[in-house]
Design a protein that fits this description.
Two copies of one chain form a homodimer. The first copy, chain A, is of the alpha/beta class and about 350 residues long. Chain A has two domains: about 170 residues, 3-Layer(aba) Sandwich (Rossmann fold), CATH 3.40.50; about 180 residues, Dehydroquinate synthase-like - alpha domain (Dehydroquinate synthase-like, alpha domain). Helix content of chain A is about 45%, strand content about 15%. Chain A is built from 13 helices and eleven strands. A seven-stranded mixed beta sheet of chain A has the order 1-2-9-6-5-3-4, with helices on both faces. In chain A, strands 7-8 form a two-stranded antiparallel ribbon. In chain A, strand 10 and strand 11 form a beta hairpin. The longest helix of chain A has 21 residues. Chain A starts with a strand and ends with a helix. At the A-B interface, helix 2, helix 3 and strand 8 of A face helix 3, helix 4, strand 7 and strand 8 of B.
């Protein structure tokens, strides 16, 4: 078992990572004075697999778990589903001391966090991420969100969980595609913040790809540590946390373009990291970074050479990014493990790289 | 002009109170790097009276004001209106550096604050309260909210404004009923936190009732100072801020009971303060507190002897209060200016006082 502390003044919390930590949740959830019920948000599939052990664990703390099911994936992240959930909490007379628990992937966590942060102006929030993406990234750091028709994550809050319980056992049941999607975020940490991890993955990604529990526990622990470092220095996403957007500027633009809705988040940011690597090389980063990035991603099973939308569409999509303001801002690498922000990247340069990558 | 600082670590802000401060808003809004537009939320009546001068003032800071109109009063505080507003922000591509401005009474402020705190995970928020209730109470302290069909303020956040601009000129145009409603909150501060103000109001409420601008400016300033003191010690409503609920436990219950929807917030808490005074006297407060409270409120034009719902209905409504948990909690006075929390008030005692006050 690994335990990583996210040190935020006044509301530090632990990320607990291991096999069967979910079934022992009672040992990891901090004291919640006044809580009598826990409202667990999950989709049907995840609930079928994990609600009962979670229920049992919470019962040992005299907390009765109430299940609120939501649609799977991004379909849950709407104001409609949000409204249904806060109505359910109100009709059940949920109290503000009762925790909201998000059990599932990143979407469930984003939605659950938004509910927890706004119902009665904030209830305790417990993250129980069951996908690799959520365990290494989304569940840590307190960002909550729902989508609007106009764009992803346009509504949300910052609301830190009281604990994150990352069940390594849940990773065994992910589809290859879901698992690979998480590996894209892993590659992000390796390239930007943890060169030791990069070395390991370059040397032998075998144990990770075989999903050996010990290898996964170590992997999730390293990524959680990297993320915790960024978050604690910059809870509100103003400086250091920018680094976590490596590959995400183009990644989010691709996700925003309807024709690419078929790509997973991880697949989109994998392409985004190739773009970021090319941009880094063009600015003052290592010349071999694009090739090294492509090699790493493809060894992790991530395709980076699929078709791209037109450069026009992509540039238009950049303008809708929360980070966009009077110019486009990218995270680039001066070297692996040395990220920096490139503030004024010209549109011509962006188009040149997109064309090189095959965009029309 | 009065200026009161609300000292909250890392996000202190000023409450600026005076004649024509709204028309000079450009002088009081702090630096907002990156802001190019301000999204002003107001109902039609308030917008007709005040949007143009606010617009002009912001234009002097090169910020273009965009008006988003909402229904007047509590009708604005719904998830439907909230959704419309965040869609409008998204379609207009509002940026997270662009401030949201609430121009109006407490409802507009609660709604506007919720929009500001959740659009793109938080934009700068400017409060421009135009009612006495909002100026002395609702606009200060960062509580935001919308209602659910199940109850008032069940959804919301804490999101401090960057400045509160309280235009004393706006108080001249309030209806007597709206103005008196604000005086109920003023009486709350006088009774719980500011005995000098209590003395003044008891001696001669004339200048306040005549709405003399200088008297109002002083009055709003004193109340803002009292509220700022509570808020800075207890941003998240856990301890000192409880005091501000004096008279509100019964007041909110009355507002929650449909038959009493006709009473204004101020009228409901006026009755609530009479209840709290009787409870205080029964516990260990001054025996003359109920009579003194009734005298003060009636000198301010507030009726306290109208019909009440049944004690059964009231006790049921208490159970839905955010502050209710395994018992009912009341703020009482050991003496004027000396509030304390009474934690375990028995239901029999509550019913006895309600019956004394005329409830069946």
């Amino acid at each position: 078992m690994e335990r990583v502390t996210v040190p935020i003044p006044g509301r530090s919390y632990d990320v607990v990572i291991g096999q069967d930590v979910l079934g022992r949740a009672d040992a990891f959830v901090p004291d919640l004075p006044g809580a009598t019920r826990a409202f667990v948000i999950a989709d049907r599939t995840v609930a079928d697999a994990w609600f009962v052990p979670l229920c049992d664990a919470l019962a040992r703390r005299a907390v009765h778990a109430v299940l609120l099911t939501v649609p799977a994936g991004e379909a849950a992240k709407t104001l409609d589903v949000y409204r249904t959930l806060v109505h359910q909490l109100a009709t059940q007379e949920a109290h503000r001391d009762d925790p909201v628990v998000a059990l599932g992937g990143g979407s469930t966590g984003d939605l659950g966090g938004f509910v927890a942060s706004t119902y009665m102006r904030g209830t305790p929030f417990v993250q129980v991420p069951t996908t690799l993406t959520a365990q290494v990234d989304a569940a840590i750091g307190g960002k909550t969100a729902v989508n609007l028709p106009e764009g992803k994550n346009l509504v949300g809050t910052f609301h830190q969980p009281v604990v994150v319980i990352s069940e390594i056992g849940a990773l065994a049941t992910l589809s290859d595609r879901e698992f690979r999607s998480g590996l894209a975020e892993v590659a992000k940490y390796a390239l930007t913040l943890d060169v030791d991890l990069l070395d390991e993955l370059e040397r032998d990604p075998g144990p990770v790809l075989a999903r050996e529990p010990d290898a996964l526990e170590r992997l999730v622990g390293r990524c959680a540590r990297a993320k915790a470092g960024c978050v604690s220095e910059d809870e509100r996403d103003a400086g250091k946390r920018m680094v976590l957007n490596y590959g995400h500027t183009l990644g989010h633009a691709l996700e925003r373009i309807d024709a690419f809705a078929g790509r997973s988040h991880g697949e989109a940011i994998a392409v985004g990291m190739v773009f970021a690597a090319r941009l880094s090389a063009a600015l003052s980063g290592p010349a071999d970074l694009p090739a090294r990035t492509t090699r790493l991603l493809s060894s992790l099973g991530l395709e980076t050479d699929g078709p791209l939308p037109s450069a026009d569409e992509i540039v238009r999509a950049f303008a809708l990014d929360k980070k966009f303001h009077r110019g486009i801002r990218f995270v680039v690498l001066r070297d692996v493990g040395r990220p920096e922000v490139a503030d004024r990247v010209g549109e011509a340069e962006i188009r040149r790289i997109l064309h090189e990558m095959g965009a029309t």
